[in-house]
Design goal:
- The structure is a single chain.
- The protein is α/β, with parallel strands linked by helices and 248 residues long.
- 35% of the residues lie in helices and 10% in strands.
- The chain has 11 helices and 5 strands, in the order E-H-H-E-E-H-E-H-H-E-H-H-H-H-H-H.
- It has a 5-stranded parallel β-sheet.
- The protein binds iron/sulfur cluster (3 copies).
């Protein structure tokens, strides 16, 4: 029997769900192996009977926490989809300010007291509220990797997510390092899996897939040292996508 899959969104731009819709020809193959039972961005039908829940977005309000816990209670497997869900992503940048400042900055003098829709707290990643089984990194997620993850889960296998830096993929692509052009690239300490998309288009990696594990012992740090930079320089730049990790 095909596993039932559902997609859910919280605070996000919905770009990661859009990547699912952008799967194009592989979507035909995927619906051969999974049943999509809920996907607000793509279909009207909704079912609370699912095996695998893909959760996009970060958690911003008590009502979000409640909803996420219900999703977790129904799902056998829960996957965090994209940077907002995995780490809080760029939404977590607001955590450097007080909630009062954030509300004032966004809503001004509007009367938002006692309205649960505006009852925001500091942004949380999905795993700060419920247990997460797997993470699909990136802002947005990479289509090829997403296809592999859905296929693995449908076959009952553990998805393989790279734990080596973007530099490895960049070198495989034969790119000229963007440091040579005076750009600051986070590739040496960022988790691979995107095929070094940004450096392959002559842009620096901004670290949207988060930190590779144990970046301090990775030999790719030599790249940073070669250009007179330190691990701390790179980590400071990581705040855009990994504010939570960097502010610990
Ligand atoms: S990770 Fe990026 S693309 Fe995905 S929902 Fe968040 S902001 Fe949008
Ligand atoms: S630092 Fe950036 S551009 Fe240079 S090799 Fe690594 S990923 Fe590629
Ligand atoms: S190169 Fe870096 S910023 Fe670009 S998609 Fe890959 S991880 Fe994200």
């Amino acid at each position: 029997m095909k596993p039932k899959v559902a997609f859910f969104d919280f605070a996000s731009c919905e770009g990661c769900q859009l990547q699912v819709l952008n799967l194009e020809e592989s979507i035909i193959e995927l619906i051969e192996i999974v049943d999509v039972v809920s996907f607000r961005e793509a279909m009207k039908e909704h079912s609370d009977d699912y095996d695998i829940a893909f959760v996009e977005g970060s958690i911003a309000r008590p009502m979000d926490e409640e909803r996420l816990k219900k999703i977790r209670s129904k799902a056998k497997i829960l996957v965090a989809l994209g940077a907002c869900a995995c780490t809080g992503g760029i939404n977590a940048l607001r955590n450097q300010y007080s909630i009062e400042m954030v509300k004032k900055g966004v809503y001004g003098d509007a009367d938002i007291e006692n309205n649960p829709y505006f009852d925001v707290f500091h942004t949380k990643a999905v795993d700060e509220v419920v247990e997460v089984d797997y993470y699909v990194y990136g802002c947005p997620v990479d289509k090829d990797e997403l296809t592999k993850v859905i296929t693995s889960l449908a076959l009952g296998k553990r998805p393989e997510i790279p734990n080596y830096p973007v530099c490895v993929e960049c070198k495989k692509e034969g790119n000229v390092c963007v440091f040579e052009e005076g750009k600051f690239c986070l590739g040496p300490v960022t988790r691979a899996g995107c095929g070094a998309r940004c450096p392959s288009n002559n842009n620096a990696c901004e670290g949207c897939r988060g930190l590779v594990d144990n970046p301090n012992i990775n030999s790719e740090l030599e790249v940073l040292q070669k250009y007179g930079l330190t691990l701390e320089d790179a980590l400071e730049r990581f705040k855009m996508f990994c504010y939570r990790e960097m502010s610990k």
